[in-house]
Amino acid sequence: MSASIEKGINAFKRQVDSSVAAFFSSCVHCGLCAEACLFYTETGDPKRTPINKTEPLRRIWKSEFTLMGRLGKMVGLTKKVDDALLAEWQELVYDSCTLCGRCSMVCPVGNDIALMIRKTREGMAAAGQAPEGLIGATNRSVTIGSPMGVKWPALRAQIKHVEEDTGLTIPVDIEDVDYMLLLSSMEIMNFPEFIEAVAKIFDKAGVTWTISSEAFEATNSGIQIGVSDIAAELVQRIVDVADKLRVKTVISPECGHAYMAIRWDGPNLVGKPFNFKVRHILEVLDELRKDGRLKLSGKETQKLTYHDPCQISRRGGVIDEPRRLIDMFAEDFVEMPDGGKMNWCCGAGGGVSANERADEIRLKVFDRKKAQLEAIRPDGIISACSNCRIHLEDGLEEHNMDIPLLSLTETIAEHLAED
Amino acid sequence: MTEIELLSWARGPGLQIATIIFVAGVVIRVVEILLLGRKANLAEAKGGEMANGMKTMITRTVPDRTTFKRSSVTIVSGYAFHIGLFVVCFLSAPHILFLKDIIGFGWPAAPTAVIDAFAVITIIAMLVTLVNRLTNRVMRYLTNFEDLLTWFVTFLPVVTGYIAFHRIGMTAPTLLAVHILSVELLLVVFPFTKLMHAFTLFIARWYNGAISGYRGVAS
């Protein structure tokens, strides 16, 4: 047995808890999860059935954590986890799953299959069986601080542009403020309008806030590749700075997995509760709306829909907030079929977009989103995740569909009421 | 061994052995799950774990509309045979009398014609699930020996019960002995296979609902 497979097996073992054991004990092989997964519905390949993606973890659970499995192991009856199995499963666990969690919502016995796949990735990564693209992104996150290699000078330059354009000062490294804004590399490089939008909204609302020059990156490749140690290190950087600046709330930007990483996984990764709150930008805006500090003017008359980013809606719990915010400016809002907590994934989350090997299947499974959009034919799509946004634009372009993508935060900023 | 001796063994020692294996097996399986434990969630909660976990234990029984449309054969046949099994197991007069002897109390039985109809529905539904399992692309891929074994040991008591009730082929004691032995086979196989889902699905659903509920999502 190679050293890496041994590491992998130990990592698999560490992932088994009472929830995983209950899940595996309950699976009846009904196959319903396949029909909830766009990687199956759009390819028709039964290998991509969600529960099948957890096979390596299942084998470890069975042989190490059940009486029958342990007895079977003694007489050599259990199925082994080896390099060949993990190599074969890489494509299923990483390329064919965005951890969107739709399967977890339909499993009749209640298995949280997305969680099981997330845990399977821990063993895969420890055994050295992760895609090159994700390994590269993770290494850059650790060494440079960003999966796309974005350093502080790049953000500082973008901030300078925004300050010139708006005449507003973007607060940097300010202590004792209410909010510390995190950003995704994607926003810094492709959508600096987001920073501008937040600056304008917070200026109007009289919010005290800051960006940290030391820890501004919200994304976390560690949770995508499935290496908890690295994920914890990336979270700890934010925790240290938030504590140093004594901020009350850390804001997760328009990025799905970043929210999962800092809001729901963060304290569990670093092993203690945070001294500050974590909120998604949409939760913050909705709070401002509720307090009467967010006033908008003018209405969008075009037909708009909202694409729920999986980690923000179904896996994150921010479902009603965007709809209340959209209601402030949209006259003609339509839900996609299955919109809300059952929305279909764009196909690029969970590290799929960072994994070049998955480019082809990523665009193939976009057909599900295309079908959703064709059912309502919107004039514009609002979303709150820059990764979804980039991929949706890619997919729409591929199919010559001319539907603009809008950021919810940016659209709100455009509608800010003048004093 | 005469047929009466066979029936006596099935009703006596056979049933005792099978029941002991069933109860001990189920307890071991449930305990080995729960003893693993789960780390406390350190993130600030947005909703309740307990209430949503309990809710999901019930609500997950009903599929969402899109899933129903996409997997209607699996869902309808699954529902039909589960409901059918429940009715013929727990609402037929001979079964209630049999259980009353063991647990000391009974409950009203459904009319014979109803039980008969449900037995036929169960048999048909189980045959549909088998054909579905062998022809549906996903299910065929997932199916292993255990899936077929558990189907068989569940199907057997229904068929032997139906035959025993209608006294087809053999004499009554033999038919009854065969029926009871088939139930004992089911009891013995139960704890060591996916049949355990009858118990563990409530734990699984609770965890699912609790995980989502904590984040403020109704699952």
Distance between the amino and carboxyl termini of chain A: 70 Å
The biggest beta sheet of chain B reads: none
Number of separate structural domains of chain A: 3
**CATH topology tier name of the largest domain in chain A:** Glutathione S-transferase Yfyf (Class Pi), Chain A, domain 2
Biggest sheet layout of chain A: 4 strands, parallel
Which blocks of ≥5 consecutive residues of chain A have pLDDT under 50? none
Count of extended strands of chain A: 8
Keywords:
heterodimer; A: 419 residues; alpha/beta; Fumarate Reductase Iron-sulfur Protein, Chain B, domain 2; Glutathione S-transferase Yfyf (Class Pi), Chain A, domain 2; Rossmann fold; 3 domains; 4-stranded parallel sheet; 22 helices; 52% helix; 7% strand; globular; B: 219 residues; mainly alpha; Fumarate Reductase Cytochrome B subunit; 76% helix; 0% strand
Structure, explained:
The complex is a heterodimer of chains A (419) and B (219). Chain A folds into three domains: 3-130, Orthogonal Bundle (Fumarate Reductase Iron-sulfur Protein, Chain B, domain 2), CATH 1.10.1060; 146-289, Glutathione S-transferase Yfyf (Class Pi), Chain A, domain 2, CATH 1.20.1050; 290-414, 3-Layer(aba) Sandwich (Rossmann fold). Helix content of chain A is 52%, strand content 7%. Chain A contains 22 helices and eight strands. Chain A has helices spanning 3-15, 18-26, 32-35, 38-41, 55-65, 67-74, 83-95, 102-106, 113-126, 132-143, 152-166, 185-190, 193-205, 221-225, 228-245, 256-270, 281-290, 320-326, 359-364, 366-376, 386-398, 408-414; strands at residues 179-181, 209-210, 249-252, 277-280, 300-306, 330-333, 380-383, 405-407. In chain A, strands 2-1-3-4 form a four-stranded parallel β-sheet. A four-stranded parallel β-sheet of chain A has the order 6-5-7-8, sandwiched between helices. In chain A, helix 7 (83-95) packs across helix 9 (113-126). The longest helix of chain A is centred in the middle third of the chain and has 18 residues, at 228-245. Chain A starts with a helix and ends in a 5-residue tail after the last helix. The N and C termini of chain B lie far apart (55 Å). Chain B has ten helices and no strands. The radius of gyration of chain B is 20 Å and the shape is globular. With 219 residues, chain B is mainly alpha-helical. The chains are: A alpha/beta (419), B mainly alpha (219). At the A-B interface, helix 2, helix 3, helix 8 and helix 16 of A face helix 1, helix 3, helix 4, helix 7 and helix 10 of B.
